[in-house]
Every structure is written in C-alpha cells, then in structure tokens.
Fold each of these.
Amino acid sequence: MNLEISPVAICHSPYKQKFAIPRQPRLVPAAVGRLMLQGECNNPDLLRGIEQFDYLWLIFSFHENLAQGWKPTVRPPRLGGNTRVGVFATRATFRPNGLGMSAVKLKGIGVDNGQHYLEVEGIDLLDGTPIYDIKPYIPYSDSLADASGGYADEPPKSLTMTISDQAKQQMTAAELACPGFSELAQQVLAQDPRPGYRQQDNDEREYGVQLHQFDLRWRVEQGVNHIIAVNPIRH
Ligand code: SAM
C-alpha cells in the first residue's frame, strides 16, 4: 500500500550543512529550531494542548540524502566504519523510506506573520528538513530505562573546547547578532564532527562549517578542540 504524504512543517535550523550536525537529538541542547507549520496544518487548533508535554517526537525526511538511495547493510561510524550491519539495525540516513525520528524538547509555540510554529531544543535536523508528523513524547511508554543500546549503548565522547584570542573577539560579535551562538558552537564542536577515521588526538587539518550565518573554523590538537575563527558568511 503506497502512501502519499505532505510535510506538516518545515524545520528552520541553525545547521546549514549536514557536516557537524550531531548524530542524535539532545546531544547539543543549545540547537534551537522552529517548526513552521505548513498548508492546512498552519492552524493553532492542531497545537491545542501540546504545551502540556515537555518533549515531542518528530518524524521527518532525510530529504538531502534521498537521491542517493540506500543499501541493505551500512557501516555505522560507531563500529569504526568497517563493520556492516543491517540498515534496520542502524539510525543511518540512507534507508528505504528515508525517514528519521527525533525526540526534542518543546520550548514554546508562537506565530510570526500568520505562520504558526513550535520552538524546539536539541534538534539534529538540517535547515529546511520536511517534518511529516509531530507527536507528544509519553514517558510511561516511550522511556525504557532497562533497554540495551547494542553497539550504541553509551553517548559519544566529547572533546574539551578552547577558543583562540582572535576567535574570542569574533565570537563576541557573533553573540551580539545571534545570542547563544558561543554555547551552540562549543556544544557542536565538542561532539567532534570529524569523520571517524580522522578522529585522532592530533590532526593537522583545519575544518570549517556553517552554523547560523557564521563560518566556524577549528582544529584538534592534543585531544582538545580549538576554535580558530568565527566569520560572517559572505553571500
Ligand atoms: N535522530 C534521527 C534518527 O535516529 O532517525 C536522525 C539520526 S541521523 C544518524 C542524524 C544525522 O542526520 C545528522 O548527523 C545529519 O547529518 C543528518 N541529517 C539531518 N537532517 C537531514 C536531512 N534533512 N537530510 C539528510 N540528512 C540529514
């Protein structure tokens, strides 16, 4: 039975590129997004009572990866990128229907120029991600404290962060334009976004990623992640 569905919302996110988005929700609590309700769902009636819940489940499309298709087995970064497991034994983005699910914290609801939205914290979604359903997280059923997490039993390790003197000044300017940017940038980079095979304590490379309207640059030395620069993106 085929199913034709349209997005109920589009996510506005600080993550402008897939690189450096955390692997799961809530690893970066400072990542705040807005779910902009779409079409006939842009109606406050659909949100009535939602503020009673602390967390929401989002069902969404890995829309940027759909064109690349999927394979029955994948190599999770958690297993060092060499061991294959079935796609249904992973949270990989390349999967038969290209759907993802994330539990995120509900911060509030609002309306901007007739566009109703939900503000959510701890997202792991790319800017522009289509959301296909939103449901309340129900602790008595959804929280399974005794469950085994298999090969992903522990949260990923995080790196200590430092900021160069130059980046500190740039960060102050970024913070003025975008309050909370420094905390967001540090939480994102503490997740060590480098590909698994490059996650050594010393790495000559400089890395960069776009976060909100800024280009963030960093390097890992002696297991510490140094933010080198924070520059506004030039269009
Ligand atoms: N929590 C979800 C799940 O378990 O279904 C997502 C897990 S998936 C491993 C997380 C990754 O999805 C992020 O690191 C990011 O690179 C990628 N991602 C997020 N939004 C995406 C989108 N719209 N299209 C493609 N990839 C996306």
Amino acid sequence: MTTIDRIQATIADIPTIRGHVLSMTTMMCQSIVLVKVFFSDGSVGLGEGTTIGGMTYCPESPESIKLAIDAYLAPALVGQDADRIAAASLLMAKTVQGNTIARCAIETALWDGLARRLNVSVAQLFGGAVHSSLPVAWTLASGNSQTDAEEALEMLEIRRHNVFKLKIGKRAVRDDVAHVAGIKKAVGDRASIRVDVNQAWGITDARWGLAGLQEIGVDLVEQPIPRGYTAALKELTSSYEIAVMADESLQGPEDAAQVAAQRSADVFAIKIAQSGGLAPARDVITIAHTAGIDTYGGTMLEAGVGTAAALQLFSTIPKMRWGTELFGPLLLRDEILAEPLQYGDFSVTVPAGPGLGVDLDEDKVAFYSRDRARSVAL
Ligand code: MUC
Ligand code: MG
C-alpha cells in the first residue's frame, strides 16, 4: 500500500502585472499556497490553495490555509492510504470544518499523485477529457476606464481573449454603468462583456445596476449582492434577461443544491477551491446541470498548479456554456511552472498528463517563498 508520508505547504508572494482593483480590495501581489504531498513509494503530488486579497474575499487567508494544513490536515492524513482519495477527503472534512481552499489544495495533490503513479492525466481519473482547450476570459480591473479599454483592444488584437469580465461595485452604480458602457463601446461586437460586483450592491442598487447593464448589452452579472441573499438573488434573476451568476454564494455542493432548488441564479461559477476540491466541484457542476443551470469555469486567481487542476477537471465537462476565466498565471509578473500553460486563440490548452501535466520551477518557488523573503530580511 502506498501511504501519505509528509505534507509541505509553502506560501509564495508573487507580484501582479498591475494593480487588480476589486470592489473589496486592490491586489498588487498574489499570495499562493503550494502544497506537496510526499508518498511512501517516492512519488510526489502537487496542489495549490489560493485566495484573493488577504481576508477581504472570504474567511480563509494564505496564512490560515497553511495553518489548517500544517496543524490539522497533515497530521490527520499522514499514514493514510494514498490511493483512497474519497476516504482521505472524508477524513479531511471530519478533521476541519469549512476551509475549503486548504482541503482543495491537498485533494488536488492527492489526485496529482495518484494520476502520476498510474501514468495518466487527472482528467482521465474524472472520466477523460472531452476538450483539449477551453475558452478563457480576461478580467479588466486596472481601476481606470481608459487603461481597461486599451487592455481589451490589445487582447483582441493579439487574439488572447474576446471575453472580458469587468470588476465593478466600488464606485456609485451610475458611474460603474458609465464605465462599462465605455468599454462596451470600445470593443463593439467583437467581445462578450460581463461584470463581477463581488457582493458589493444592496438590492436597490442591484435593480438599478442590472437595468442599466442590460440596457447597454452586458451579457452577465456575477454575484451582484451578498452571498446569503439567495431570495433577493432569485428576484433579480427572474426580473431581468441579463444572466445572473452565483459565485461567492457557492461554497460547495450544499450551497449549490440550495441555490439550484430556489433557482436563484442562471449560471454557477465553478471554483475548485471554493467547492473544497475537484470531486466536490464536479458535484456542483452536476447539481447545476441537472437543475438546468449553466456553468462557467471560475478562478481564485491561482498560479499554474491550481489553474492546471481546474483545467484537468473542466476538460472532462462536455458543456461549460459560459467558458472559463482560468487566466491566473497571466496576472502574475513571473512564472513558477517549469513550462508555462499555453494561451492563444482565445483559449487555454489543457496540459497533457501525467497528473496535472505541470511541474514547478523550484528556483522560482524558492525565490518567491515567504520563508526565504523573511530570512533575507533578517
Ligand atoms: C472572482 O470573484 O470571481 C476571478 C477573476 C478575477 O479577476 O477575480 C476573481 C474572483
Ligand atoms: Mg466572482
């Protein structure tokens, strides 16, 4: 029997290419948590647990992800059968409540390890890929309308993205709608424009916002109101033609079942981290599709490992009707994979196996690791 020998979690702080302005914070750096699971046969699995903007986005932080792994999840898992991922996931859920990002990081590494030992891709463990590449959106969030419009036009020109998600909710609704209208006008019919409010509006702002955004031809609005307001989200979903997507509302399959039962959203943003791993993310997808709700491959702005993990899973889903936004590595100023993920022709290529299909550039990881930065400062 191959067992779990040791688990290592490393925080790495990687600067972003520009400020990324969201309704709740501005990111100048992304702090990722890289996980390595070492197995008794000498194999190693990679995982990533990454959140957005410290603790402004959700209750987990890079530090809490590492703490949950080091102090609770790793001690529980050491000595367990490495090939029985369902059993390991159950043990993680019993040992640690919530903390879906920490659990996802380890679950990902267990899938990577198992797939590498079997010499297959992680996608193969989920039924096999039906796509070799997936459409990929880009987020315009420089905080400046002119810069955002220029960025969109450049992405269209180089054929990297033709779907843009605009981060709004920080300014007054009227100003946000004017900002979106300016970008919509600049790109015309060449791109799909969507917005993400990250829970910033109350219901009355949301009514004005959705009416205005619908009027100017925006295709979708993501999480306009706080995650708990599922009845109000339903009201918005049924009052407008513009698609309403749930993101923060979905912290795993139980939330997904509730939102689906109430038909509170038209689309689910599927995030492996928010779902608690690849297997529960697939459950969320199944819940959505069986309820007639469309899906979109979401991101927590992970670097290459987390992005590859999501790609492996999403490549097995026949219909991700709204595409994906798996662009995380492109927002970072440096690459930590030995071979970067491939972007082009408005898509991202699913890396070929074994495992997640990616390896780390260990020097880069060491360079950005918080431990090293601290020891250099001392
Ligand atoms: C979110 O809320 O969806 C995804 C893309 C992006 O720019 O931010 C994330 C978070
Ligand atoms: Mg979102």
